[in-house]
């Protein structure tokens, strides 16, 4: 893999792809404790063929971003929330959690070390950070490992869904990504492995991603392929699904707070796929997706169009402007949401 060079990048046309940047952070867990971690230039991982992560999926990950401000400084958005979620994900898979304060420090080190790769403010891009925790122990029985590797690497990114704020079309699937009582609340690779076939089916049929329904009744909206769902009712209320098998999205909890501030009376509640008529607008929300308008949802061959298939709705636009205003440092947000790097 060739190392990325700033001069080869077009910051105004970044997709969502891997770039081998100069530095990543790595720390190892042996003998019951985390060893001191450090920045390294080595973007490869040397693993036993029998590492538990490879066979039984004992691995968890995170996603967060750093933003170049107008004044040239750099913000990271709520890294403590990702540190905490990774802790919970690790506990779900019986892994040694990486200490949350050290997680945030390591994020900052990786951002600083790769700062030439943070897209300029005007480009609308950001530096995506991918913390990863894997079980490296050689085990062939289905047992939790005792050795772990924690790493954080980074890459400059643009829009996750092509078109950015242009609405895209979604479709429900007969498949589930996570079971009731399974690992849906944890950010584990297995959930994403389960989503690849339905995702591919959706893409081949011309949709940008899947709307997963609840695994017990296939009646209630869970989440989208790689984002949580929200709808804005005709009288302006912000609603998002409540379910034990979806990812507790940092963006969702942030928007629940901002929607409250904006008088949108937000709620988390079960949302039936048969009750889409209540919504004037709908969207996907997540770190990679930011806010991406959902133009339509097709369920059992019937297409439901929300605000428009080509234009973003006014409430979705207002939430987007407020969220990225805070992330890029143009607007003051609730205390502690952004950290200067
Ligand atoms: N749901 C899924 C399945 C995701 O992969 C993501 C992305 O992280 C989200 C929701 C949104 O979570 P967050 O806002 O913390 O990025
Ligand atoms: C994120 O938004 O950070 C995600 O994890 C989405 C992703 C799987 C690309």
Automatic annotation (TrEMBL):
<keyword id="KW-0456">Lyase</keyword>
<dbReference type="InterPro" id="IPR001544">
    <property type="entry name" value="Aminotrans_IV"/>
</dbReference>
<comment type="pathway">
    <text>Amino-acid biosynthesis; L-leucine biosynthesis; L-leucine from 3-methyl-2-oxobutanoate: step 4/4.</text>
</comment>
<protein>
    <recommendedName>
        <fullName>Branched-chain-amino-acid aminotransferase</fullName>
        <ecNumber>2.6.1.42</ecNumber>
    </recommendedName>
</protein>
<dbReference type="Pfam" id="PF01063">
    <property type="entry name" value="Aminotran_4"/>
</dbReference>
<keyword id="KW-0663">Pyridoxal phosphate</keyword>
<dbReference type="InterPro" id="IPR018300">
    <property type="entry name" value="Aminotrans_IV_CS"/>
</dbReference>
<dbReference type="InterPro" id="IPR043131">
    <property type="entry name" value="BCAT-like_N"/>
</dbReference>
<keyword id="KW-0100">Branched-chain amino acid biosynthesis</keyword>
<dbReference type="GO" id="GO:0016829">
    <property type="term" value="F:lyase activity"/>
</dbReference>
<dbReference type="GO" id="GO:0004084">
    <property type="term" value="F:branched-chain-amino-acid transaminase activity"/>
</dbReference>
<keyword id="KW-0032">Aminotransferase</keyword>
<comment type="similarity">
    <text>Belongs to the class-IV pyridoxal-phosphate-dependent aminotransferase family.</text>
</comment>
<dbReference type="InterPro" id="IPR043132">
    <property type="entry name" value="BCAT-like_C"/>
</dbReference>
<dbReference type="InterPro" id="IPR005786">
    <property type="entry name" value="B_amino_transII"/>
</dbReference>
<keyword id="KW-0028">Amino-acid biosynthesis</keyword>
<dbReference type="InterPro" id="IPR036038">
    <property type="entry name" value="Aminotransferase-like"/>
</dbReference>
<dbReference type="InterPro" id="IPR033939">
    <property type="entry name" value="BCAT_family"/>
</dbReference>
<comment type="pathway">
    <text>Amino-acid biosynthesis; L-valine biosynthesis; L-valine from pyruvate: step 4/4.</text>
</comment>
<keyword id="KW-0808">Transferase</keyword>
């Amino acid at each position: 893999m060739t190392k990325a060079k700033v001069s080869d990048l077009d910051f105004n046309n970044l997709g969502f792809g891997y770039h081998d940047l100069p530095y990543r952070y790595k720390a190892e867990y042996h003998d019951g404790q985390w060893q001191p971690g450090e920045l390294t230039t080595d973007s490869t991982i040397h693993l036993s063929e029998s590492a538990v992560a490879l066979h039984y999926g004992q691995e968890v990950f995170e996603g967060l971003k750093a933003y170049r401000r107008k004044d040239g400084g750099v913000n990271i958005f709520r890294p403590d929330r990702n540190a905490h979620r990774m802790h919970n994900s690790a506990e779900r898979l019986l892994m040694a959690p990486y200490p949350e304060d050290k997680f945030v420090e390591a994020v900052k080190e990786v951002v600083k070390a790769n700062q030439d790769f943070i897209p300029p403010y005007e480009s609308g891009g950001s530096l995506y950070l991918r913390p990863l925790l894997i079980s490296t122990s050689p085990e062939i029985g289905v047992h939790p490992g005792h050795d772990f590797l924690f790493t954080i690497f980074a890459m400059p990114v643009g829009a996750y869904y092509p078109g950015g704020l242009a609405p895209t079309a979604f479709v429900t699937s007969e498949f589930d990504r996570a079971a009731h009582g399974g690992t849906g609340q944890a950010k584990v690779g297995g959930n994403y492995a389960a989503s690849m076939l339905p995702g591919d089916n959706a893409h081949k049929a011309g949709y940008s991603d899947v709307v997963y329904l609840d695994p017990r009744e296939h009646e209630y909206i869970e989440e989208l392929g790689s984002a949580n769902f929200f709808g804005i009712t005709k009288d302006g209320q912000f609603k998002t699904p409540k379910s034990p098998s979806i990812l507790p999205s940092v963006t969702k909890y942030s928007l629940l707070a901002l929607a409250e501030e904006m008088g949108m009376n937000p709620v988390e509640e079960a949302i039936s796929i048969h009750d889409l008529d209540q919504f004037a607008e709908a969207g996907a929300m997540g770190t990679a997706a930011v806010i991406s308008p959902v133009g339509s949802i097709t369920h059992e061959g019937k297409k439901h169009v929300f605000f428009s298939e080509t234009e973003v709705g006014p409430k979705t636009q207002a939430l987007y402007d407020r969220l990225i205003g805070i992330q890029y440092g143009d607007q003051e947000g609730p205390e502690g949401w952004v950290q200067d790097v």
